[in-house]
Structures are given as C-alpha cells and as structure tokens.
Amino acid sequence: xxxxxxxxxxxxxxxxxxxxxxxxxxxxxxQEAAPIFGITIPPGYRDWRLISVAxxxxxxxxxxxxxxxxxxxxxxxxxxxxxxxGTIITRIAWNCVPSEENNKLFGRPQSxxxxxxxxxxxxxxxxxxxxxxxxxxxxxxQFNIDGKPAAEAVLTNCFPCHQAIKARDKVFxxxxx
Amino acid sequence: xxxxxxxxxxxxxxxxxxxxxxxxxxxxxxQEAAPIFGITIPPGYRDWRLISVAxxxxxxxxxxxxxxxxxxxxxxxxxxxxxxxGTIITRIAWNCVPSEENNKLFGRPQSxxxxxxxxxxxxxxxxxxxxxxxxxxxxxxQFNIDGKPAAEAVLTNCFPCHQAIKARDKVFxxxxx
Lengths: 177, 177
What we know:
2 copies of one chain form a homodimer.
Chain A: H1 2-27, E1 49-56, E2 62-68, H2 70-78, E3 88-98, H3 100-106, E4 111-114, E5 122-127, E6 138-143, H4 152-155, H5 158-162
Antiparallel strand pairs in A: 1-2, 2-3, 3-4, 3-5, 5-6
C-alpha cells in the first residue's frame, strides 16, 4: 500500500513537470535571432515603461508606442547621453484604424486606435558600443507579431537614417513627459 | 569638547532632515483633489505599464498613451470583467505635432509626435463600485500638466459617454497586444 502511494505521488510529480514544461514552452518559443546584429526579442519588453508615442501616416499608416528598459528610462529622464551599453528601446507599431465606436459617441470621425499588427510590428535597438561599433554603437532588429525577424535587407536601412540624429545619440524618439 | 561634538552632530542631522524635507516637498507638491469624485493624481503613474495608444483628430488633435496600474493590466490581460475595485487607468494626451526632423529623413510629411501638453493632459479613472455606485462604479478626474484639476462641469460629461460602452465595463480603451 505504501509503495503504491509513493508511486502515485511520483507519477503526479512527473505529470506536474510535464504540464509545467508544456506551458513554459508555449509561452517561450525558440526565438530566432535577427540577422546582422543577432538580436532576439527582449523578454518582458511589453512590461517596460513608456518613452513616447508616435503616428506615421503615408504608406506606414500606423500608431506606435516606444518603450524602454530601466537603463533607457533612466538615461532619458536624467538627460544623459550617450545611452549606456545595455540600453534597449523597443517600438511597437499597430495599423492605425478608425474607431467607429468612439466616433459614434464623439459624433464625428476623429478617433483612431491600434488595429492589427503590420509586418514591422516590433523594432528593437540595443546599445553595445563595442559589438556594434560599426553602426554607431547600436544594433537594430525588426520582428513581426509572430516573432519572425525581418530580412537583412531591411536592417541595412536602419543605421543610414539613425546616424542623422547626431544630437541624441542616433535615437529618433524623445521622451514625452 | 564632547558636548560640542554632540551639538555639531545634532545640527548636522537636523540640516539633513531640512534638506530632505525640501527635496521631498519639491517632488511632491500638495495635490489638489478633483471635484465630485475626490481623485488625486496617482503617485508614480508615469511608470505604469502600457494598455494602448490613440489618436484624436478634430478639435482635440492629440496623441495619447493609456497606462494602467497592476490591477488594470492583470484584468485586461486575463480579459476579466468587470474591472476589480482598485483598478486605475490613466490617459496622457499630448498635442499631436508634425516632426520636421523625421519628415526630412522620410522625405515626406508623414510623422507626428507628442508636442506640448493640452489642458486635458491627464485623465484618471478609478474603480470603486461602492463609492462611485452612481456612475457605474467609476470615478473620473482630469488634470492639466501642472496638476490642476478640471472643473466640475468637465467631469459631469464623463459618465454619460462612458456608460455607452456596456460590453467592456464602461471603459473605451481596449488592450493593444
């Protein structure tokens, strides 16, 4: 009887492990690194603090939130440049769509909200002045909502534009107070 | 000699207290509560996690970030309605202005970023099903960037609009994944 109890407990423990492993793997699929810079999606970035927001019209037609890790937020708030190694800034973009619900209540077509995710859903820049010395100390990556990295040809466009922002360590986004 | 030392230490400690008090009071000015609902600006709300973003054209012409306290974020992510008592959601709005800097690099006028703060800079809604039973369990407040609450006449407009959003516990903003 004792042996059966021990066996049952052992089976229960193993089942627990199996369920835990299944849940864990579902929430953290193997992450494909972006080309050139070898950047993966930073874990927990959606919990990071807000740096600013933006709206791009034209072909992009998206609405954006720019989030930063603790190092990024500290540097922004203390207005300390250049950003220290380890700074990570993420930019989430959603297709910008009219909110019919809001417009009905406002009585006019004026309200726009995040819709589905465009191909350029998530962009990540990582500061590492040694590793990314050739691109001003920044590594660049882009992922779609399924975590698939954008091709090399997309990433080679990043630095040529970013380097124009000399006064702010090549970062477009300013902190929105 | 011993007595003088003790006296000097006492003076130094008092000076420390005075400096500390001065710094503290500079960072936390006495907060005026909003009318009707008695809401004050939630301490540290600018560090809260992002719920979503939005863009209002027309007379408002602003761009927005919607942040939530831990309770709000949990309820949104678990899709649990109604929001529990203690939920606080803040909405920051900035005047939406073109970014000449970005537009020059994009080669066309498409980029909009946060500018100065409009009078409706900060809105706060607080869930308290007993205290705010008359307004669907929500209290409403608005502050300008200097922390000055909006008048009673502004706040009486909140609930009549919010109550239309029956399916989502009277909250306009959806979570942006």
